[in-house]
C-alpha cells in the first residue's frame, strides 16, 4: 500500500511539472519570445557562473582546510615522506593553475556575456602567446618529471643486502606471510607443491627454506629495510599499505617486490594519533573477486630489538609440520633438522 | 549560368525520386543515410546511458548507505538482493564492471563518435553521404548486435562479467575465480568483438570520407575543428581497436582452448593448473594499448564539438586554430605511447615506468594549450549562453579539474599511493567521463535543430545544465579527498578496515548527489523526446553559425543539399570580422563578396576564387 502511495505521489509530481512546463510554454508563445527574455536569461546564466564559482571554490577551500587531518593519512615510511612531499608540491602547482584557469573561465563567461551594443574582438591567433603557454608548462613539467624520476629511482632500486626478507602471497581472499628466518632468506617454492598445509608450496630441496616461519600478521622492524617478496597464487592481487605509501601488484607466475623502511612503530603511531587501538593495515587494491574488499592483514612495526626478540621466538614451519621432512632430500635432512630446530 | 541551373534541377530530381522509393525499413531501420544512422547511434547511446547511469546509482546506494534496506529493488534485481535486503557483493562488482563497459564503449564511444562523426562529417565537409553508406549501416548494426549480446549477459544466472571493465586475467580467464568469469565473460568478449568490428567499419568510413569527399574549396586548413577531431579520433580507433581485438582473442584462447598466453603457475580451487609461461602483464599491455587511446577516442570528439560551439557562441573565431590542430595531433600521437602509466605498480620494469612517466606528462602540454586557447576564445567575446554553450563551458571546467589530477597520477612516484584509489576514480570521471558526456550533451543541444528540424526547449536546457554541472562536481570532487585518504576503488564495503572507516558522511553526500544528478537527466530525456515531435520549429541557421551544415534545408533529405553542393571559400571561424555587416560569414561566401571585411592576404585569394569558379564550369561542360 505504501508503495502505491509513493508511485501515486511520483505520478502526481511529474504530472504537475509537465503541466507547468506546458503552461509556461504557451505563455511564451503568446507573449512572443522576444529579445528581452533572451537577454534576461543570458544575464541569469552569466550571474550563475559567478555564483557557481564562488560556491565551488568556497566549499572546496573550506573542506580542504577544515578536514585536512581526516583525508591526509599519517605517513610511516622513509620513501613515503618523499612521495608525500612530491604530492603536495604537485598539489600547490596544479592548485594554482586550477584556480587561475577556472576563475578566468567563469569570470570571462560573466564579463563577456552578450551585449547587443558590443562586437566581439576578432582575434584569431597570436603565436607569441601560443609559444608562451607551450613553454611555461613544459618547463614546470620538466621539473616535476625530474623530481619524480629521482624519487622513483630510489624507491625502485635494488633492496639493500641486509633487508629483512618476507614473502607475502595473495590468494582469494586473504594474504599469507612467510618470513626468511634466521638466515634471512626465503626458500624456493613451486606452485605444484601447494597443498592444504603447505599453502606457499615451499620447495624443501632448498636449504634456505628450512628455517622459514609463518606468522598471521606482518611484523616488521622500524628503521631497517624490509624487502617484500610479493606473489599471488590464483589471480592478481595488490599489496597496499596506505600508511607506508606502498603498493605493488601480486602477479601469479611473476614474483614482484617492494622494499621500504618503516620509520614509526605501531606504539609511536598510537601515541601520535591519540588512538590506543591504532594498527597499520594492509589491503588489496587489485580487483580479485567477491571478497576483494576483505583482504586485510594487520601490520605491526616494532623497535628493532623487539623485532629480533619476536623473531627469535618464532618456530620454523618445518618444525611445526615435521611430516614434510619426507620431502627434504636425504643429504639435507640433517641440516634441515638442525636449522628448523626440530630437536629442541 | 543557365547550364548550371539545369544541372541543379537534374541533381535534385535524382534524389527526389530516391526518397519516394524508400520503404519504412530502408528509411528508418536499415538506412544508409548518415543522418539516420547518426540518430540511431544517438538513441541507442541514450538507452545505454540510462542503463549505465542507473547501475552507478545502485552501487552508489551500497557505498553511501551501506545499512539501507534495498529490498525494494528486488523486483528489478531479483536474487541479487538477498533476504536481508543487501546487495550481493559479487553483483556489486558486476555493476561496477558493466557501468564502466557500457559508459566507455557504448555511450561515450558509440554514442558520441557514432552520432556526431556520422552526422557532421558529410554535412560539414560538404558531401552527399559517407564514402560507403552500406558499411556505415553495418557499423551501426554491429554495434546493435554487440549491445544486444551485452544486454542478454545482464540476465544470466551467474551474472554478467564482473572483473572490472579492464577484465584483467587471470580473474577474467578462470570461471572458478568468480561467477562473472563464466558465461557472462564469454558474452562480454563476443560483444566486444562485434563492437570492435563496428568501430573499424565506422572509422574507415570517417577517414575515407574526410580525405576524399570534401567539397570544392574545403581544404584541410578550412575544416571545422569538429572534423579534425573526428578524423584524428577515427585514426586512433583504427590503430588501437585491433590491438584490443588481439587481447580479447588471446583471452578467448586461454579461456576456451587451454592456451597459456596470460596464465602461469596458478593454484585455484584446490588444484594446480597446468598453465605455465604466460603473463598477465602481457594482457595489460595489450589492453591499455587500446585502453589509453580510448580515453582520447571519447575525449577528442567532445573537444572538437566544444571548439565549434564556443567559437559560435562567443561570436569569435576559435583562438589558435592551427595550435588547436597541432595539439590534437600531438595528443593523438602521444596517446599511443603512454599506456603503461596504468601499470606503474603492476610489476612493470621500473625503468619503463620512468620512460612512461616522462611521455605521460608531456601530454599535459597540448592539453594545457587547448585550455588556454578556449579561455582566450571567451576573452572579449560576446557570449550567448545557449544550453550547448553552457555545457561547453562546463566541459572546459571539468576538463581542467580532471586534467590536472592527471599530473599526479602520471608521476610514477606519486602514483604508488594513488593507484587504484578513489583519486583515480575522481580523475577519470571528470576528465574523461564528465567532459565527454558534456561534449555529447552540448552537441545534442547544438545540432538538434539540424537533426530533427525542431528546437530543444532552452529553459529546460538551462535547468538541466545547472543540475548536471553542480551534480557532477558534487559527485566527483569529494572523491579526491577520499582518494587522498587512500580508499581503494571497487570495494563493496569499507567497514573491514580502520584506515578506510571514515568519510561515511562524504560517501553519503556523493551518493545523494549521484541520485540527484541521475534524476536531473530525466529533464533532458523529456525535453529530447518531447521536442522531436512538439518542439519549436527550427530556422535554417538558428545559432548564426558559419559552417556548411547550416546551408542545408531545415530538414535535409537524402543527399543533404537539394542542388549542387556549395563551394567553400574561407575558414569556418569568420565571426565578428571587423567591417562585416553581420557578426558571422558563412564558409560559402566568397571573399569577392566581402571586400569590406577582407584581410589583406584574403584579397589576394579573390583571383584564385575566380579561377576555381571557371574550373567548375569547365568540369560541368565536360560532364555533359
| Corresponding CATH superfamily of chain B | Cytochrome c oxidase-like, subunit I domain
The termini of chain B sit apart by 15 Å
Portion of residues within helices of chain B: 55-70%
CATH architecture label name of chain B: Up-down Bundle
User: What characterizes the major β-sheet of chain B?
Assistant: 2 strands, antiparallel
Instruction: Give the largest interface.
Output: A-B, 111 and 120 residues
**What share of the residues of chain B does DSSP label as strand, in percent?**
under 5%
Radius of gyration of chain B, taken over Cα atoms and rounded to an integer in Å:
25 Å
- CATH topology assignment of chain B: Cytochrome C Oxidase, Chain A
Q: Which class do the helix and strand fractions of chain A yield?
A: alpha+beta
Structural class of chain B: mainly alpha
How does the major sheet of chain A shape up?
5 strands, mixed
Number of domains of chain B: 1
GO cellular component, one term (chain B): membrane
Main location (chain B): membrane
Transmembrane segments (chain B): 41-63, 91-121, 133-156, 185-207, 227-253, 295-311, 323-345, 351-372, 384-409, 421-448, 460-488, 508-530
Family (chain B): Belongs to the heme-copper respiratory oxidase family.
Amino acid at each position: 500500500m505504501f508503495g502505491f502511495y509513493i508511485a501515486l505521489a511520483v505520478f502526481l509530481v511529474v504530472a504537475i511539472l509537465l503541466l507547468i512546463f506546458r503552461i509556461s510554454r504557451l505563455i511564451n508563445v503568446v507573449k512572443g519570445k522576444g529579445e528581452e527574455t533572451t537577454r534576461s536569461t543570458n544575464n541569469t546564466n552569466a550571474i550563475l557562473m559567478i555564483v557557481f564559482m564562488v560556491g565551488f571554490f568556497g566549499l572546496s577551500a573550506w573542506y580542504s582546510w577544515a578536514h585536512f587531518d581526516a583525508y591526509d593519512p599519517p605517513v610511516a615510511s622513509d620513501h613515503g615522506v618523499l612521495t608525500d612531499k612530491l604530492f603536495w608540491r604537485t598539489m600547490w602547482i596544479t592548485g594554482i593553475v586550477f584556480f587561475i584557469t577556472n576563475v578566468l573561465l567563469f569570470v570571462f563567461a560573466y564579463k563577456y556575456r552578450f551585449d547587443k551594443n558590443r562586437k566581439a574582438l576578432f582575434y584569431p591567433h597570436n603565436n607569441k602567446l601560443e609559444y608562451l603557454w607551450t613553454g611555461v608548462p613544459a618547463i614546470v613539467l620538466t621539473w616535476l618529471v625530474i623530481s619524480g624520476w629521482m624519487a622513483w629511482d630510489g624507491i625502485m632500486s635494488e633492496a639493500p643486502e641486509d633487508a629483512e626478507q618476507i614473502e607475502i602471497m595473495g590468494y582469494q581472499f586473504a594474504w599469507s606471510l612467510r618470513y626468511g628466518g634466521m638466515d634471512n632468506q626465503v626458500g624456493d617454492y613451486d606452485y605444484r607443491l601447494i597443498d592444504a598445509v603447505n599453502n606457499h608450496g615451499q620447495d624443501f630441496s632448498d636449504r634456505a627454506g628450512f628455517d622459514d616461519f609463518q606468522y598471521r600478521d606482518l611484523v616488521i622492524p622500524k628503521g631497517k629495510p624490509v624487502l617484500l617478496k610479493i606473489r599471488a597464487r590464483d589471480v592478481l592481487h595488490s599489496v597496499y599499505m596506505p600508511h607506508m605509501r606502498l603498493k605493488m601488484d601480486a602477479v601469479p607466475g611473476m614474483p614482484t617486490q617492494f622494499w621500504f623502511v618503516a620509520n614509526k612503530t605501531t606504539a609511536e603511531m598510537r601515541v601520535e594519533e591519540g588512538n590506543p587501538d591504532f594498527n597499520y593495515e594492509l589491503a588489496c587494491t587489485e580487483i580479485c573477486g567477491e571478497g576483494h574488499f576483505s583482504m586485510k592483514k594487520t601490520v605491526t612495526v616494532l623497535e628493532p630489538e623487539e623485532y629480533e626478540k619476536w623473531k627469535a621466538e618464532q618456530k620454523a614451519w618445518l618444525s611445526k609440520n615435521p611430516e614434510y621432512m619426507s620431502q627434504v632430500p636425504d643429504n639435507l635432512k640433517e641440516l634441515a633438522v638442525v636449522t628448523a630446530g626440530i630437536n629442541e | 549560368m543557365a547550364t548550371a541551373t539545369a544541372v541543379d534541377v537534374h541533381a535534385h530530381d535524382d534524389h527526389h525520386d530516391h526518397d519516394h522509393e524508400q520503404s519504412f525499413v530502408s528509411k528508418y531501420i536499415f538506412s544508409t543515410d548518415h543522418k539516420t544512422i547518426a540518430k540511431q547511434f544517438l538513441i541507442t547511446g541514450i538507452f545505454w546511458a540510462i542503463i549505465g547511469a542507473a547501475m552507478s546509482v545502485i552501487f552508489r546506494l551500497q557505498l553511501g548507505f551501506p545499512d539501507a534496506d534495498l529490498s525494494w529493488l528486488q523486483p528489478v534485481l531479483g536474487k541479487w538482493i538477498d533476504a536481508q535486503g543487501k546487495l550481493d557483493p559479487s553483483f556489486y562488482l558486476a555493476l561496477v564492471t558493466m557501468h564502466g563497459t557500457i559508459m566507455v564503449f557504448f555511450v561515450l564511444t558509440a554514442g558520441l563518435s557514432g552520432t556526431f562523426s556520422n552526422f557532421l562529417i558529410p554535412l560539414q565537409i560538404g558531401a552527399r553521404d559517407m564514402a560507403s553508406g552500406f558499411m556505415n549501416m553495418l557499423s551501426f548494426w554491429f554495434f546493435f548486435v554487440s549491445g544486444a549480446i551485452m544486454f542478454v549477459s545482464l540476465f544470466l544466472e551467474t551474472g554478467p562479467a564482473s572483473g572490472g571493465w579492464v577484465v584483467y586475467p587471470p580473474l577474467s580467464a578462470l570461471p572458478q575465480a568468480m561467477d562473472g568469469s563464466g558465461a557472462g565473460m564469454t558474452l562480454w568478449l563476443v560483444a566486444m568483438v562485434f563492437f570492435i568490428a563496428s568501430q573499424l567499419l565506422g572509422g574507415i568510413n570517417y577517414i575515407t570520407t574526410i580525405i576524399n569527399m570534401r567539397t570544392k574549396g574545403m581544404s584541410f586548413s578550412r575544416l571545422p575543428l569538429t572534423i579534425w577531431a573526428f578524423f584524428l579520433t577515427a585514426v586512433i580507433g583504427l590503430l588501437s581497436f585491433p590491438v584490443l581485438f588481439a587481447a580479447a582473442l588471446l583471452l578467448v584462447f586461454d579461456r576456451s582452448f587451454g592456451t597459456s598466453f596470460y596464465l602461469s603457475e596458478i593454484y585455484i580451487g584446490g588444484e594446480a593448473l597446468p598453465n605455465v609461461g604466460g603473463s598477465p602483464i602481457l594482457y595489460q599491455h595489450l589492453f591499455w594499448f587500446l585502453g589509453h587511446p580510448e580515453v582520447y577516442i571519447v575525449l577528442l570528439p567532445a573537444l572538437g564539438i566544444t571548439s565549434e560551439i564556443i567559437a559560435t557562441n562567443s561570436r569569435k573565431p576559435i583562438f589558435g586554430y592551427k595550435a588547436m590542430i597541432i595539439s590534437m595531433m600531438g595528443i593523438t600521437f602521444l596517446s599511443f605511447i603512454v599506456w603503461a602509466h596504468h601499470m606503474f605498480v603492476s610489476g612493470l620494469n621500473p625503468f619503463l615506468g620512468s620512460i612512461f612517466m616522462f611521455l605521460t606528462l608531456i601530454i599535459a602540454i597540448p592539453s594545457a594549450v587547448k585550455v588556454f586557447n578556449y579561455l582566450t576564445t571567451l576573452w572579449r567575446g560576446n557570449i550567448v549562453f545557449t544550453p550547448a554553450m553552457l555545457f561547453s563551458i562546463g566541459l572546459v571546467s571539468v576538463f581542467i579539474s580532471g586534467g590536472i589530477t592527471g599530473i599526479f597520477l602520471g608521476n610514477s612516484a606519486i602514483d604508488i599511493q594513488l593507484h587504484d584509489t578513489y583519486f583515480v576514480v575522481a580523475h577519470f570521471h571528470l576528465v574523461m567521463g564528465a567532459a565527454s558526456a558534456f561534449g555529447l550533451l552540448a552537441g545534442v543541444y547544438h545540432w538538434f535543430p539540424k537533426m530533427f528540424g525542431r528546437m530543444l526547449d532552452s529553459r529546460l536546457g538551462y535547468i538541466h545544465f545547472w543540475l548536471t554541472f553542480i551534480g557532477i562536481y558534487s559527485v566527483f570532487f569529494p572523491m579526491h579527498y577520499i582518494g587522498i585518504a587512500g580508499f581503494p576503488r571497487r570495494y563493496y564495503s569499507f567497514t573491514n578496515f580502520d584506515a578506510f572507516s571514515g568519510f561515511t558522511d562524504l560517501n553519503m553526500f556523493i551518493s545523494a548527489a549521484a541520485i540527484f544528478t541521475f534524476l536531473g537527466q530525466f529533464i533532458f530525456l523529456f525535453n529530447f523526446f518531447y521536442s522531436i515531435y512538439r518542439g519549436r520549429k527550427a530556422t535554417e541557421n538558428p545559432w548564426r553559425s558559419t559552417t556548411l551544415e547550416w546551408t542545408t534545408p531545415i530538414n535535409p533529405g537524402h543527399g543533404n543539399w537539394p542542388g549542387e553542393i556549395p563551394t567553400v571559400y574561407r575558414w569556418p571561424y569568420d565571426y565578428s570580422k571587423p567591417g562585416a555587416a553581420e557578426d558571422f560569414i558563412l564558409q560559402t561566401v566568397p571573399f569577392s563578396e566581402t571586400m569590406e571585411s577582407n584581410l589583406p592576404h584574403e584579397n589576394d585569394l579573390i583571383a584564385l576564387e575566380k579561377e576555381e569558379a571557371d574550373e567548375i564550369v569547365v568540369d560541368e561542360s565536360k560532364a555533359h
